[in-house]
Amino acid sequence: MLSGKMMEPQDDIEEDDSPSASAPPSSSPSPSSSPPPRALPRQRTSLQKSSVCSRSYFMVVMVFFHVYIINVIALLLYVHYNNGSNAISANRDFTSSDSSSHKVTGASDAQATADSGFPRNMFLPRIEGIRVGHVQKVSLVSGKVHEMKTLSLKPLLFEIPDFLSEEECAVVVRLAQLKGLMESQVMVPEGQEELDQQLNLSPEEIFNFLDLNQDGQLQPHEILTHSRVRDGIWLTSENLKEIYDGLKADLDGNGLLSLEEFGRLRSDAFQRFLLQRGVERSQLVRNSRHTWLYQGQGAHQVLQDLRKRVTLLTRLPSSLVELSEPLQVVRYEQGGHYHAHHDSGPVYPETACTHTRLAANTTSPFQTSCRYITVLFYLNNVQEGGETTFPVADNRTYEEASLIQNDVDLLDTRKHCDKGNLRVKPVKGTAVFWYNYLSDGRGWVGEQDEYSLHGGCVVTQGTKWVANNWINVDPDYQRQARYQLLVSQQESQEQEEPNSDQHIEAHQDL
Amino acid sequence: MLSGKMMEPQDDIEEDDSPSASAPPSSSPSPSSSPPPRALPRQRTSLQKSSVCSRSYFMVVMVFFHVYIINVIALLLYVHYNNGSNAISANRDFTSSDSSSHKVTGASDAQATADSGFPRNMFLPRIEGIRVGHVQKVSLVSGKVHEMKTLSLKPLLFEIPDFLSEEECAVVVRLAQLKGLMESQVMVPEGQEELDQQLNLSPEEIFNFLDLNQDGQLQPHEILTHSRVRDGIWLTSENLKEIYDGLKADLDGNGLLSLEEFGRLRSDAFQRFLLQRGVERSQLVRNSRHTWLYQGQGAHQVLQDLRKRVTLLTRLPSSLVELSEPLQVVRYEQGGHYHAHHDSGPVYPETACTHTRLAANTTSPFQTSCRYITVLFYLNNVQEGGETTFPVADNRTYEEASLIQNDVDLLDTRKHCDKGNLRVKPVKGTAVFWYNYLSDGRGWVGEQDEYSLHGGCVVTQGTKWVANNWINVDPDYQRQARYQLLVSQQESQEQEEPNSDQHIEAHQDL
C-alpha cells in the first residue's frame, strides 16, 4: 500500500480517518518501504534525472526512516519504563507523608533521577497477602507450580513449601560445611561503649532514653530491652534481681532504678558482673553457628539458581537482589536458639544503611542493615523444636512494653515460644519470607514493620539447618540509586582492567 | 540505513551506536526533518528535475509522515491500554485461587472480554492502608487537600475530615427531609418463611445449619445469630430465657436446645411469641428512618458533586460508581441505633448480586447487595453517642461464636459499644469508608471481609444524620461487565427515543 501510492500521485493519499490509524505497531515500514526506491528510477527510465531524484529522495527516505525508527525505539523505551512509573505516579497524585522519614524519601525521588541518571522510578512491588490462609500459585521453576500461603498480614508473611528440592538443601548444607561455620555471637562483644562515647551522652540523657514511659524510674523491662541489645547477653527478670543484689544497685529494693541509683552504675556494670560470674552460651541472645555463601557469577549453580528464584518470588528488580547480602547458612545445635529480634532497625532521617554507606557520604552513628525482605529457607527437618516464632504477628497493637511481662516474656524463645501468636514448623525445602518494612505508599520502602519481630525457638532435639537471604534496600531512594550506579560503574571499570581477581577474591571471603 | 546502502554505498550513514538512538520522544521529527528535503533540490537549481523530484519527494514525505503519525498513535494507544492491563497481568502471572468463588471469577475474566466487548481488564485499585494511623494527602476538590487517615487494616478503613462542607451537609439533610423518610425497618417483616420453603429444608437440616460447632445442641448464641438476621428482632440472652420458659422449649432446662426440643417448635415460634408479648422499636435490629436520593443527571448539584468526589476518593472506574445505589440518608432519633452487621453478604458460587440480577439470568435463592465499598458521611455533630463501632477491627482472628459471650455481646450497640475494638465519633462533614470485600489478588472483588462488621451505637442525646454511598460491584467479573453493557445499551436506546421521561421518573422514585 505504502510503496504503491508513492509512484502514482493521482491516488488518494490515506487520510487520518483511515482504518489503519488503529493498526498495531507490528506493521513495520522497513520491509515494505525498500522496494520503491529501486522501482522508481526504473519506471521513469530517465537515468540522469533519477540519479538526482534518487539522491534527494534517498535522503528524505533516510531521514524519515531514521527518525521513525528512533521514535519507535524511544516510545518503546517509554512504554517499558512507564509501566513501573505509572504505578508509582498513580500513587503520587495522592501523595502521603505522615512521618519525617517519609519526607526524606519523597523529596529525594525526583532528585535521584536527575542526579545519578539511574533508571528512574525503580519500583518495589509488594505481594498482596489478601487474608491469612490465602493461597496463591506462583511460577518459580519451569514446569512446576508452587503454592504460596499467607501466614500473616502484620508482618506480610508467606510460606512456600518445596521451594528447594532435597538435593538443593543437601548442596547448600555441604557448601556451608566446606566453607566452615563460625559462632554467630562471640561471648564478649567489644566496642560496646563506642556509641555512647561517640554521642557523648550524660547518665541523665541515657536514663531518659531508657525510661520509655517517662515515669522517672526504670522498670525491669526497660533495662532488659536495652541491655539485651547492647550486651548480647539475654537477661531474665531473675538475672536482673541477682545483679541488683550483687551490685547493690537498687538501694530502696523496690525493683526499680531511679536516676540517682542509675547514675551510680558504670555503663558496662551489668556486663562486667555477668562475665565475672560466668555466662553460658545458652544465655546469649543467639546460640548458633553460621557462614556466608556468595551467590554471584562463579558460585555453585544451586546458589545462583536460588538467587534467581528469590528474585522471581519477591518480584523485585534483579539488580536489587544481586546487590544484597550473600546467603547466610545457620546451624543450630541441640539447645540452640535465637531470641526474638528484628532483622533490621527503624528508619530515622539520620539512619544510614550498611550496604549503601559507601555511596551515602554520611558519618551517621545510626546504622542498620536495611533488610527490606527476609527469605528464610529450612534445609532439614528438625526432630523437635526449632520453630520460627512471630510472637506478635497480626496483633491488633504493638507495644514494646507489654512484650516483657512479669510472668511471660514473649521475646524469650527458650521459655515462651508457645505463647506467641504464630509459629512456623521447619520443614525441609520450605521457604518463608516476610517484609521487615512497610510500604511508603509510593512504591518504595517505608517505616519498619514492628510486627516482623521473630525468633528461633530452642531446638530440643536434633540439629537445625536454615539459610537466610536478605534483600537490602535503602529507604532513601536516592542513596539506593547512587549506590547501584556506583557499583555498576565499578564493575564496568573492573571489566576493562585485566586483573579483576581482587573483586572475585573479595567475594570469596564472604 | 536499509535504503541508504542500496543507493549510495559510499555514504556514511548513522550507525546504531549514534547517540540519537536513545533520544527522548520529544525530539519530534516533523519540524526538524522538513528543512533538508527543501534545501536539497534548491541547491541543485535544476527546475524540471526538481519538479519531478518534488512530486515523488512529496509523496514519500506524505506517506512516511502518515505512517509515522499512525504508528505514534498506535503506540500511544498501546501505552494507554497497557497500563491497566499490565497491572492486572502482573498479578495474573502468579494467579491465585483458594476458594471456589475465586475460580468462578477467574474463569470468567477473559470470557467477559470476548463475549461482551466490555472494556477489558476493568481494574479495581485498592488504596494502601500501610498501617493504622498512616495519613495520606488526597486531592478531591480543586484548591483543597484532604487528609485520609487509616483507621484499621481489617477492614481497610479510612477517615477523611471535612469531606463535605457545612453547607453541603445542610443541603443533603434538607433534600432528605423534603423527600420524606421512612422507617428503616418495619415491625413485622413478611415473607420470612419463603427461603426455608423454597429450599424445602427439614427441621433436621435447619438444626444442623444452625449448630455452628456441630455439637448436636443449639447454644444460645447459635439461636441468637440466626433469629436476629431472620426476624429483625434483637433477642438478648435474657429474652431467649424468657421465650424458652414461655414456649416450654427447653424441657431439660439446660439452656440448650437439642434436636428433639428444636423439632417441636414452629419455625416462626419465637417471632410469634415476641409479637404477642409486644415489641418496642428499640428491640429491633435497626431503629432509624431513611430515604434514598438519586445522584445522576438532573439531581441537585451537591449530590452530583458528592458522587464525583466519591469516585475520586475510591479511585474506582466512574461507570461503577454511577451504576451503584443512590445515596441513602439516615436519621437516628434519640435512642436510635443499628446493631452490628455486615453491609453485604458472603459470596458463594451460587450467590447473585441484587444490582446485576437482571443481567445474570439466574434464579438463585441466595442474593446479596454486593456492596464492595461503604462510604459513610456524618451530616451533623451528635450531642452524645451515635458512634460507628467496628467491634472486631484488626482483631487477630474472627470467630463468630466468640462475638456473643454470656456477659458481653459485641454485636449489641445499645449495651456494649464501649467493648469493641474501634469507634468512630460522628463529626459533621467527615467521611469514613471501608471495603466490605477483600481483593481477589487479581484486581477484582474477592471474599467478604468479615472484619467489616460494624454498627451504629445508640444515640444517647440529640439526633444523628448520616448518609451512605455504597459502591456495588459483582464479584463475578463477567456478570458486572454484562450488566454495564446492558445498561449502556439501554441508555443509548433511550437517547434515541423521544420519550425518555420514564427513565428519569423511575429514578425519582428512589
UniProtKB/TrEMBL annotation, chains A, B:
<dbReference type="GO" id="GO:0005509">
    <property type="term" value="F:calcium ion binding"/>
</dbReference>
<dbReference type="InterPro" id="IPR044862">
    <property type="entry name" value="Pro_4_hyd_alph_FE2OG_OXY"/>
</dbReference>
<dbReference type="GO" id="GO:0032836">
    <property type="term" value="P:glomerular basement membrane development"/>
</dbReference>
<dbReference type="GO" id="GO:0160082">
    <property type="term" value="F:hypoxia-inducible factor-proline dioxygenase activity"/>
</dbReference>
<dbReference type="InterPro" id="IPR002048">
    <property type="entry name" value="EF_hand_dom"/>
</dbReference>
<feature type="region of interest" description="Disordered">
    <location>
        <begin position="1"/>
        <end position="47"/>
    </location>
</feature>
<dbReference type="Pfam" id="PF13202">
    <property type="entry name" value="EF-hand_5"/>
</dbReference>
<dbReference type="Pfam" id="PF13640">
    <property type="entry name" value="2OG-FeII_Oxy_3"/>
</dbReference>
<dbReference type="GO" id="GO:0005506">
    <property type="term" value="F:iron ion binding"/>
</dbReference>
<comment type="subunit">
    <text>Homodimer.</text>
</comment>
<feature type="transmembrane region" description="Helical">
    <location>
        <begin position="57"/>
        <end position="81"/>
    </location>
</feature>
<dbReference type="InterPro" id="IPR045054">
    <property type="entry name" value="P4HA-like"/>
</dbReference>
<keyword id="KW-0479">Metal-binding</keyword>
<feature type="region of interest" description="Disordered">
    <location>
        <begin position="93"/>
        <end position="113"/>
    </location>
</feature>
<protein>
    <recommendedName>
        <fullName>Transmembrane prolyl 4-hydroxylase</fullName>
        <ecNumber>1.14.11.29</ecNumber>
    </recommendedName>
</protein>
<keyword id="KW-0106">Calcium</keyword>
<dbReference type="GO" id="GO:0004656">
    <property type="term" value="F:procollagen-proline 4-dioxygenase activity"/>
</dbReference>
<keyword id="KW-0472">Membrane</keyword>
<feature type="compositionally biased region" description="Basic and acidic residues">
    <location>
        <begin position="500"/>
        <end position="510"/>
    </location>
</feature>
<dbReference type="InterPro" id="IPR006620">
    <property type="entry name" value="Pro_4_hyd_alph"/>
</dbReference>
<keyword id="KW-0325">Glycoprotein</keyword>
<dbReference type="GO" id="GO:0031418">
    <property type="term" value="F:L-ascorbic acid binding"/>
</dbReference>
<feature type="compositionally biased region" description="Acidic residues">
    <location>
        <begin position="9"/>
        <end position="18"/>
    </location>
</feature>
<keyword id="KW-0408">Iron</keyword>
<keyword id="KW-0560">Oxidoreductase</keyword>
<dbReference type="GO" id="GO:0005789">
    <property type="term" value="C:endoplasmic reticulum membrane"/>
</dbReference>
<keyword id="KW-0256">Endoplasmic reticulum</keyword>
<feature type="domain" description="Fe2OG dioxygenase">
    <location>
        <begin position="323"/>
        <end position="473"/>
    </location>
</feature>
<dbReference type="InterPro" id="IPR011992">
    <property type="entry name" value="EF-hand-dom_pair"/>
</dbReference>
<feature type="compositionally biased region" description="Pro residues">
    <location>
        <begin position="26"/>
        <end position="39"/>
    </location>
</feature>
<keyword id="KW-0223">Dioxygenase</keyword>
<keyword id="KW-0812">Transmembrane</keyword>
<keyword id="KW-0735">Signal-anchor</keyword>
<dbReference type="InterPro" id="IPR018247">
    <property type="entry name" value="EF_Hand_1_Ca_BS"/>
</dbReference>
<dbReference type="GO" id="GO:0039021">
    <property type="term" value="P:pronephric glomerulus development"/>
</dbReference>
<dbReference type="InterPro" id="IPR005123">
    <property type="entry name" value="Oxoglu/Fe-dep_dioxygenase_dom"/>
</dbReference>
<dbReference type="GO" id="GO:0005783">
    <property type="term" value="C:endoplasmic reticulum"/>
</dbReference>
<keyword id="KW-0847">Vitamin C</keyword>
<comment type="function">
    <text>Catalyzes the post-translational formation of 4-hydroxyproline in hypoxia-inducible factor (HIF) alpha proteins. Hydroxylates HIF1A at 'Pro-402' and 'Pro-564'. May function as a cellular oxygen sensor and, under normoxic conditions, may target HIF through the hydroxylation for proteasomal degradation via the von Hippel-Lindau ubiquitination complex.</text>
</comment>
<dbReference type="GO" id="GO:0045646">
    <property type="term" value="P:regulation of erythrocyte differentiation"/>
</dbReference>
<feature type="region of interest" description="Disordered">
    <location>
        <begin position="489"/>
        <end position="510"/>
    </location>
</feature>
<keyword id="KW-1133">Transmembrane helix</keyword>
